[in-house]
Every structure is written in structure tokens, then in C-alpha cells.
């Protein structure tokens, strides 16, 4: 029995399309016992993925759901195809069904774009036609890729003359937090009737970037004075203030939590009646909007060198991006960028980066963070 008596609330708080608007993320070390506890408290929507190297465990989500008294049809299971498996999506998908101990998943997302993503969408449409998936979605897509998907005639494996998708795009899962508000993709989703689902709402992406000279120490989102001021005004935690702000913008939420106390707080604060018991007023909403693009973290003394840099892979192949740690004479990988993909990093004036592999050519392509807009593009070498 649900401790809070809110067993259905997380499901009831859904979009018009029936897509749930509040679930539990399960990266960040969420394990069987945490999922089991969340089910007991009333969570009914779980986000997982095939990429175990990022902390997901589909099999543990499946184990917890199978052991629970909650019927499978009351649970919404969302998983994502591993980025390395886009070209063999149909072959790897049955493993997700086995791991999750189910005959169908409620939502299947492409974890991020990569070579062959158009054909992967076609394979996802086929799985939906076979009744193995209810909703389709993508993750880490920008407006250009979403436009190609919806308007470019991506169907059954190719991009051709405009043709309707065989299955609707139900959800886009992207990084959104107060410093990275992803406004253009949210606007695109709102205009096209697609659910926008935020990941890392609570600042986890900035925590991952600490090595790049970001604030370090306290979580820069949850420590920010604006967030704390709004939280104090409503007598809630900074985490709840951030998530409620997103909820008021119509964003679907999947915060990760291993703590029963936090899980309970999330359901109490965000789950009831499709909304919450408190609301940010227009002035507080404007204050949150004004944080977009800010360098996260409290300024360190008189350090005015902090900058944000956006790297976009405009080449045809995947590249790997490195921060050049000149002091230690080494290159530190910051991740891979699929064609068309962009990432925004927290850095400092004069920091250097290099893109290697694929279209970047044998020498790599080098960038230095300057005083300007810091919009860096990786181009195919032969087109430079
Ligand atoms: N598609 C993608 O590429 C992608 C990338 C990243 C994440 N995701 C998905 O999005 C989910 C969420 O993102 P995330 O894991 O990066 O992190 P997140 O939700 O931004 O933050 C998780 C952290 O917030 C803490 N937290 C949760 N509720 C809290 C509360 N009420 N008060 C204070 N702290 C609280 C958790 O600590 P406790 O455990 O102590 O509660 C945990 O350390 C992931 O689990 C995953 O499902 C997708």
C-alpha cells in the first residue's frame, strides 16, 4: 500500500496525450531497493536506459516492478536505446523487454542522435506497429534535428520527400536546468504538441563538469541565491523550487533520487492534482528565467574569467571533444558529439579545447575560449 495515499497521483499528473509528467530518473545510482521504495511511495513512472555505463540498470528497474504488488499496467516504463546500437536497434530491443520483464515498454527513446538515427526511427516505428512500444521519443536532439525528424520525411530509414511519420513523436528528453533552459527546443515542442521532459533538472550536469573549472563544491543550481530565495519564500527545499518552476512551464519531470525522504518530498510537492500546493508568482518566474545562460556557481572572489562555450559538431561524423589541461600536459575527454549535436560547457577565458576523430581531421580542430560569443563549430576538414 502506498504510504502517502498518492498511488495514482503520479500517473494522474499526465499530459493530454496520457504521457505522465512526473517520474523517477534511475541513473545516478538508483538501484532495485530505491525503485521498490519509490513504487511503495506512489511513483508509477520510471526512466531507464540500455547504457549501464551511465548508471542505469534496466534489470533492476524490472526486478523491482516485478516484485511489487503494483500491476504492470499501472506502471509507465520508459527506456532508451544505447547510442552505439542505433544501427541494430531492432536486434537489441528484445534485451530491454527481458531486463524489464515485460512484453512492451510504454516509451522508447533514442538516447542521442548518431549516424543512422533516421533508420533507427524507422525501426522504432516498426516496434510500435508490432505493439512492443506505446510511445516514441528522442533525447539530446536540437531544433535542427527535430525539424528534420518531423518535417524532413524521415520514415522507415531514410530522409526523402516530406512524408508523415508513421508514429507521432511523443516526447523529447533534454537537459534543462536554471542555467541551461533549452528554450528553443521547449518552444518547438510546445508548438508541435510534443511533451518536453527535462533531465538533470537539479544541477547534475554542472557537477559532472567540475573538472573543467566550473564552480566545484556545492551544487551550483541548488546553492544559487535566486533559487534559495524562492524556496525560502515558499518554505520548500531548493530542489522543489526548481522542479515546481519547470512544472509551471509545462515541463515533464524525472528527477533521480535514492532517498526515501526526497522521493516523498517530490511526490508531496509535485504530484497532487496535476500540480503542487505552491506556485512561483510571475516575478519569481521572471527571476528564474533570468538565470538562463549564467555561469553557474557563486563567483569565486574577483574571478571574472568564467565563460560558457558552446561546441557544435557540424561535421558528418562523430567527434570526441577534449579540454586541454595545459598545466598537466594532458587532454581530458569531455564527451562525444554526434553530427548535429551541440553541448555547452562551463570554462574560463583562455582555456583550450580540441575536437578529435571523424570529421575533425588528423590534427584535430582547436578552439580557445575568448571574450566573444564562444560558439565553436567543428567542420569537416575538407570543407574548411
Ligand atoms: N537522456 C540523457 O542523456 C540523460 C542524461 C542525464 C540524466 N538523464 C535522466 O534524468 C534523470 C535525472 O537526472 P540526473 O540523474 O542527472 O540528476 P538530477 O535529477 O538533476 O539530480 C539527482 C540528484 O538530486 C538529488 N535530489 C533528488 N531529489 C532531491 C530533493 N528533493 N532534495 C534534494 N536533492 C534531491 C539526488 O540525491 P538523493 O539520491 O540523495 O535524493 C541526486 O543526487 C536521470 O536519472 C536519468 O533518468 C538522462
Please characterize this protein's 3D structure:
α3 runs parallel beside α4, α9 crosses α10 (238-248) and α10 (238-248) packs parallel to α11. The termini are far apart. The chain is α/β, with parallel strands linked by helices and 384 residues long. It has 2 domains: 9-289, TIM Barrel (Alpha-Beta Barrel), CATH 3.20.20.100; 306-383, Immunoglobulin-like (Sandwich), CATH 2.60.40.780. It contains 12 helices and 17 strands. The longest helix has 13 residues, at 117-129. A hairpin with a 4-residue loop joins β12 and β13 (330-337). The strands form 4 sheets. Strands 1-2-3-4-5-8-9-10 form an 8-stranded parallel sheet, with helices on one face. It has helices spanning 9-12, 32-41, 58-67, 89-100, 117-129, 143-151, 183-192, 204-208, 225-234, 238-248, 260-270, 282-289; strands at 24-25, 45-47, 76-81, 105-110, 133-139, 154-155, 158-159, 169-175, 195-199, 252-253, 306-313, 319-325, 330-337, 342-348, 352-356, 365-368, 375-378. Bound molecules: NADP nicotinamide-adenine-dinucleotide phosphate (NAP). NADP nicotinamide-adenine-dinucleotide phosphate (NAP) binds at residues 25-28, 47, 111, 139-140, 173, 199-204, 237, 239, 254-259, 262, 265-266.
Summarize the structure.
The chain is α/β, with parallel strands linked by helices.
At the fourth CATH level, what is the homologous superfamily of the largest domain?
NADP-dependent oxidoreductase domain
Residue stretches low in confidence (pLDDT < 50, at least 5 long) are 1-13, 211-216, 298-303
**Proportion of residues in helical segments:** 25-40%
**Terminal-residue CA separation:** 63 Å
Instruction: Quote the CATH topology of the largest domain.
Output: TIM Barrel
Sheet with most strands: strand arrangement: 1-2-3-4-5-8-9-10
Biggest sheet record: 8 strands, parallel
Computed over alpha carbons, the radius of gyration is: 21 Å
Q: State the domain count.
A: 2
Count of extended strands? 17
